[in-house]
Automatic annotation (TrEMBL):
Organism whose genome encodes this protein: Sandaracinobacter neustonicus
Protein name: Uncharacterized protein
Superkingdom of the organism of origin: Bacteria
């Protein structure tokens, strides 16, 4: 692979990871907001119906962020296919032991 293509691949990978992190951060923020709304209502001693529409809209926003996260995971997978097609090699920045492994297309195994 040319040096230029590798640089482009690294730029794309960094942007992908930043996008994934941004969605996760937004999802976390909205989840915290949704979680605090009922507590705030109780602390203010408002009736249960107060703020219900706002809570429902915030939950809808959280659902949409989750859909965006799912789409980004699919985009990541699609880019992995492009990477493999052009023999670019992984662009990961560290090993995530929690990431599920895919079925290898190469049946070779590492043995000790």
């Amino acid at each position: 692979m040319s040096k230029h293509r590798k640089e482009v691949a690294i730029t794309v990978a960094r942007s992908l990871y930043a996008s994934e992190d941004a969605i996760d951060s937004a999802l976390t923020q909205v989840a915290n907001f949704v979680a605090m709304m009922p507590t705030a209502r109780q602390d203010a001693k408002f009736a249960a119906c107060v703020g219900q529409d706002a809570l429902a809209q915030a939950i809808a926003a959280m659902t949409m962020l989750n859909q965006a996260r799912e789409a980004m995971v699919r985009a990541h997978d699609a880019l992995a296919e492009v990477r493999d097609q052009f023999h670019i090699g992984p662009m990961g920045y560290g090993v995530d032991p929690n990431k599920p492994l895919r079925e290898a297309s190469n049946p070779l195994q590492i043995v000790a």
